[in-house]
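Lecture notes, part 5. Sequence design as translation. It can be helpful to think of inverse folding as translation between two languages: the language of shapes and the language of residues. The source text, in structure tokens, appears below.
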């Protein structure tokens, strides 16, 4: 028995094949009542899209974009241009997004919600007027439990990071639980036992406590006790007091907050240092390279998939894509490649 086609649905309802196609792809120019009839008839006939035709149509769309690449947006939720320039992580993140967009036949344009006079609604109007069908929203920090009032229904969208609370959208983020597990595993191989973790509680909460959970689950000591230090605010005095009490052999931190504080101590009292946010400009501190460039590329992949499948608005079943980091050993001038 032949597979039911778009033409069979069109003949049954007495409408054009193009109208059927648009309705099944979620096109905006088909009335809701007619779309419901078309979907019902398609189900009754047992219609299933032909994967080979879908593949061909995707190829044709990509071919057209080579000549005139469609623009997607990368929206910086909070950081200014100056802050981005000072952050190697942010630069790698958006570089990965630009590179992947170009590879897939798109171009990426950056926008800033923190720009003077800019609001989420105004930005939505700008994107719609420019014909930009989708955007990536950068990590939220101060508004990690807040709401950004974009006109979600008009766009495909992806949020970077786990801290975003409302609405629930497709997200990509670094696998923080695995990152901590990897750091602990590497330190255990080096015979460390008194491994301490000094971190702000807010950033840990923002990732649903992935770091602290992994620290407790994989620590070489059954009861790490005071070796886990989560603070609302970090300070040099508090850190040094914690060192005297907990006596860690090595300190893990979320970035490089404690680097200068440790450097102020005499070598005999100075524990080693590992970062969960390894930086190329501080290679002397080993740790987890979160590979922001890979994260940016993954965000574009997820966004382009939505665009090609004509998905807009808040998804019924949001997807979370996680990317892995890499362990980077300490590198000093003495062991750096010539």
């Amino acid at each position: 028995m032949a597979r039911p086609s778009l033409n069979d649905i069109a003949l049954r309802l007495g409408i054009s094949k193009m109208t059927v196609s648009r309705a099944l792809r979620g096109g905006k120019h088909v009335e809701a009542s007619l779309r419901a009839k078309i979907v019902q008839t398609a189900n009754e006939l047992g219609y299933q899209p032909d994967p080979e035709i879908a593949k061909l149509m995707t190829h044709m769309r990509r071919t057209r974009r080579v000549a005139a690449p469609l623009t997607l947006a990368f929206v910086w939720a909070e950081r200014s241009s100056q802050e981005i320039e000072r952050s190697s992580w942010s630069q790698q993140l958006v570089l990965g997004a630009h590179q992947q967009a170009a590879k897939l036949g798109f171009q990426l344009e950056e926008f800033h919600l923190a720009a003077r006079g800019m609001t989420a609604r105004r930005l939505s109007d700008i994107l719609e007027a420019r014909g930009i069908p989708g955007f990536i929203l950068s990590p939220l920090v101060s508004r990690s439990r807040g709401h950004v009032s974009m006109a979600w229904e008009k766009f495909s969208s992806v949020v970077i990071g786990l801290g975003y609370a409302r609405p629930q959208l497709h997200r990509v983020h670094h696998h923080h639980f695995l990152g901590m597990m990897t750091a602990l595993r590497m330190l255990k191989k080096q015979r460390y036992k008194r491994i301490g973790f000094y971190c702000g509680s807010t950033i840990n909460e923002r990732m649903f406590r992935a770091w602290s959970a992994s620290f407790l689950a994989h620590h070489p000591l059954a009861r790490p006790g005071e070796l886990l230090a989560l603070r609302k605010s970090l300070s040099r005095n508090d850190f040094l007091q914690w060192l005297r009490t907990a006596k860690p052999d090595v300190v893990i931190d979320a970035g490089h907050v404690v680097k200068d504080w440790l450097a102020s101590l005499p070598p005999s009292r100075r524990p080693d240092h590992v970062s969960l946010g390894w930086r190329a400009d501080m290679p002397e501190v080993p740790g987890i390279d979160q590979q922001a460039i890979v994260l940016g590329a993954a965000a574009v992949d997820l966004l382009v998939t939505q665009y090609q499948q004509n998905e807009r608005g808040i998804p019924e079943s949001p997807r979370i894509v996680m990317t892995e980091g890499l362990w980077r050993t300490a590198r000093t001038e003495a062991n750096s490649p010539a």
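The translated text above is only one of many valid answers, since several sequences can fold into similar shapes. The chain has a mean pLDDT of 87.
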